[in-house]
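Dear Dr. V.,

Thank you for agreeing to look over these. As mentioned in my earlier message, I'm a first-year student in the group and I'm still getting used to reading structure tokens, so any feedback on how I've presented them would be very welcome. I ran two proteins. I've put each sequence directly above its structure. The first is here:
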Amino acid sequence: MNDFDRYKSLKNKLNFVYDGICLNRVLALSLWAVANGKYAFSWKRIVLAFLAIDVKRLEFDPQKHMILSTFGRYARKDHLELYNTVLDKLDGKASYNKTLTFGWKLSIHPVVIYKVAKFIFSNLHDTSLSLWDKCKLIIECIHYCNIIEELKYMDFTGVQKYLCQCSVLDLENLLTQFFKLRNIPTYSLQEGVYFIFKKNPPLDSVQYENFETDNLLCWGQFSIDEDVSYGISPRKLRLAGYPKKVELHTMKKDNPYKKCMLLLARDSFRNTNMGLLNILLNHSSDYEFCLKLHPSCDFSFYSSFASQHGMTIISKDRTINDCLNNNFFDFAIAVNTTAYYEALMRGLPCLRFCDDTFDLMAGYKDVFGTDEEFRVIMETVKNQPLQTYQEEVNRALEYAIGVNIDNYKNLLCGE
């Protein structure tokens, strides 16, 4: 079995439902990690069985707001920027909740502890999971049941809609299920270009496998087409457009094609990243390469490589928005990242490297996988008419990520 199949098998066995909420959907991220031996769990987290996130800190004023919104408990500056940008479009009608700032509350429910432990030991007895792995899941499951207990006694009068950053994971999945049970329409933002993985489905495949919200606010038609092909109802997929504030730049004339930014994939694709870097070592006399790492990448590993081979690396505290600028760079190369689209929007010709270990997203005719293909595609991009290139890139951007489309206010406040 591959990672995806192991995850699905474990998820099907842990079909524990508490007050109408399916905990295996809330725990999707943890189940993936446990099923594939990748869950780093400290003994200190045992206390979670006796704690709940202090959800009573959720801000909502029915006199001002119609939408209760949340940003999940993860530290991604780029995703927070996206969330903030969408809320700015809504004229103050959505409350603001950055849940990572919420503290903890003592929450002890012996009956919950008993029910969860009994269920997991009974239902997972025939798996290869260790006792410690089962205890990890028991602790996580109890923790989220504690949160459900807190939510049950809260007043959500006046909430007309619930909007979250990512409805497929953790607390926001729980809240999405909670509000659906109360017939409050739920909405979720899209964090990137969603598409169906046909080769070695990675963790990102939970975006469609664990689909939860009533309405996913999709960037472009490409993601809608992909999700429909998986079997998700088109009624749940709303074309909202690209949400971030970005000034579209045209490709610059007389481009010297000298300075190149490398937009690398997450660390699970390190072999792919290194495949690209090893090809580019053959061209270090022709181009200046600068590495922009995915947040999950090992900064020290790539810093060492860059210093050894005459490349530079961008500080990890700088976002894509800070870096992509066609005054500083002439072109870019992307590896399995939506930053590819960001580069094109900022007037940077961007190639894509693919070694067939992942599925490509929609885009332009700019893919290479070998040294020879890199040489050919570079010559093609350099020599084609600028207007033709720009027009084709613009069409690709509209289909893939919804550039020049903005339906957020109408979908969230007008319906």
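The second protein is here, in the same arrangement:
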Amino acid sequence: MFALLYDITHVNEEIKKLRFPLGCRSDWHPVPQVQILSDGLTSWLSETGSLTARLQQHCKRFVVQVIGQEEVPADKHEIQVLGNDNNGFIIREVLLWCDDQPWVYARTVIPKTTITNLGQEIEHLGDRPLGAFLFNTEGMTRGVIEVAEFQPGSALFSFAQAISPLPIANIWGRRSVFKISNNALLVQEVFLPAAQAYR
């Protein structure tokens, strides 16, 4: 089932159909409060180290594909968890590919004040992984990891099925706030149907 080869042209067509940004609207809860189906999935959702590094351990070819990055409004739940006064945000959405399969959809919400205080590097990552920047920055701290389930009918599940048409009942994601010198950003990562997390 997981040997499916993905047509990047098809994935790009599905991305073009999106009304950016896609978003991560769901009910988020700390890991201990959620009934998760398998120990393997729990391990991925609760990983406190760099997800980028762990993904790279499971594949020979790792690629970041940028879906979009723009200054657009953040969702209310994102503003709330950031504790921000909604003075502007950069939203970055990407796909993380492992061995030519899309494994993770990631959405980062970066307050403009964070960019101002930390410098332009975080805004100009391009196809470089955010995790490499965060986990190599001195003084970085990570908040509580929360998880969410995305079921059929949600926009994110529909997108996941469109680009990764494997039989799966639902998909799971996680989020946490990172801080560097008290400058916050919110990282949300959703495991797509082909991901190692479900195997």
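From my reading of the second output: The longest helix spans residues 8-17. The two ends are 10 Å apart (CA to CA). Does that match how you would interpret it?

Kind regards,
E.
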